[in-house]
Amino acid sequence: MADDQQPNPEDEFRDMLREFLSGNSGLDPAQLAGAAGLPADPEVVRQLMMQLQSALQSSGDGINWGVATDQAKALANRTAESISDAARSELTAAFGVAGLWLGEVTYVSELTAAPKLMSRGEWITATMPIWIQLAEPVATSISDALTQVLTEQAPEEMAGMMQGASELMRNVGGTLFAMQLGHAVGQLACEVVSGGDIGIPLLDEQQAAILPQNVADFGAGLDIDKTQVQIYLAVRELAHARLFRHAKWLRLQLITSITEYARGIHIDTSRLQELAESFDPSNVEELRQAMVSGSLIPPKTDAQVAALGRLETMLALIEGWVDVVTLEATGRLPKSDAIAETVKRRRATGGPAETAFSTLVGLELRPRRLREAAAMWQAVTDGVGAEGRDALWSHPDVLPTSADIDDPAALVARLKGGAPEPDEVDQALEDLLRDSGDRPIEGGGPDGDEPRPV
Questions:
Q1: H or E element: which one contains 52?
Q2: d(CA 57, CA 51)
Q3: What is the DSSP string of 407-421?
Q4: Which of 44, 236, 257, 450 has the fewest CB atoms within 10 Å of its CB?
Q5: What is the pLDDT of residues 64-121, one digit of tens each?
Q6: HEC profile for 364-402?
Q7: Are strands 441-442 and 209-210 parallel, antiparallel or unpaired?
Q8: For residues 170 and 143, is the Cβ–Cβ distance under 8 A?
C-alpha cells in the first residue's frame, strides 16, 4: 500500500471513540451522562451525545464554550416566563424606593446605569463570560490530565494512534466539562434573584439587575406582601452593585484572585489512572462519584489554603457589608426581619447548582465567615458612623482584615485613634499592676507608637 494510503492514526482513534459513543460498545448514554454528574434526563442525554459527536468532528484545539451557554439556556428556558408589564412597573418602582433609602444610610457612589430586569436567559448571556473565566483553568487541567493518562496507559501498538489524538481528547474532555458548567449555570439561573445574589461580581461594575421570575418564586411561600419583598431585594442588589462601582479596584482584584486560585488546581493523574484501569462501561458509578465529588482534585497546597482564606475573607467582607446596610436601609419595612431571615437560611443551605460549581472549580460561593463579618461592620457603624465605615472601601490597604473580623473592638479603637476596652484578662493584669504600685500601661496608638503611661 502506498504511503499516502496508510491509515491515519488520528482517524482510527476518532472512529474508535465514535463507536464507543454510538452505544454499540455496551455503554448506555444515560450512564455516561450520570458519570459526568448530569441528570439522566432524555433531553440532556441527547444533547450530550450530540455535542460529543460534534467534538469528534472538530478540527480546532480548545473548548467550545458555546456548548455551556446552549446547555444553560436549554435548562433555564424549560420553565422560563416572560416579564409582564405589571412586574416591570412594580420592580422599577421598587428600585426607585431602594435607591432613596440606600442613599440615606451609605456613602458609596451611585450607579450611572439604570437597573435591569432580566430573564433567566439574559442573565445567562450576561454572566457566562465570568463563569468561563473562572472555570477554564480547571477545564484545561482536566483535559490535559485525561490526555496524559490515556497516552501513558495505551498499549504499545496504540502509541501511534494516541500520539495524534491529544487534540481530539482535549476537545471531547472540554466538551464534557462545558456541558457540566452549562448545567450548573442553568440551574443557578433558576435560583438567583439578582446580579449580586451569589456574592461575586458577575455583571459589569455599573450594573444592577433583578430576575422578576425568580423574585416571584422567592416570595411565593413567605406570606409577605410582594412589594416589601421586591423593595428588600432591590436594596440588596443596589447595595452590592454600588459597592463595586464605588470601590473600583474591588471587582478586578476579586475576579483575579478567584482565577489565580483556579489556575492552581490540578488533577490527580494517579487517581485518574486508577479509574482508567478499572473502568467498566457497564458500571460507571465509580466514575460518576469521582466526577461529582471532586476526588480527582488533590488536597489543597499551603499556598492554595492561604489564597482561599484571603478569598473567603474578601467575599465575607462584601456580603457582610451588604447585610448591614440593607438592614439599616429597610428599617421602614414591617417584615424586613422575616425577609432577612429567609435570605440567611437560603444562603446557608445553598442549592444543587452551587454544589455543582464548587465541585467544578473547587470554590464555595457562600463565605463561611459571613456572620462574623456582618457583626464587624455593625460594630464599625456603631463606633465611627456610616461614613467612616464606607471609607474603608477606598483602598485595599485600608480594608479590614481577617484579624479585624476576629476583633472588631480593636478595629474600631484604631479607627477612633485610641485603644480597645480591656477584656477580663487585661483588666485583671491592670488591677494586679495597680496593686503592686506600678502604673497601668495603655496599648499602643494607631500607628504602632510605643505604649504610654496612663
A1: helix 42-57
A2: 10
A3: -HHHHHHHHHTS-PP
A4: 450
A5: 788 889 889 988 988 888 899 999 999 999 999 999 999 999 999 999 999 999 999 9
A6: CCCCCCHHHHHHHHHHHHHHHHHHHHHHHHCCHHHCCCH
A7: unpaired
A8: yes
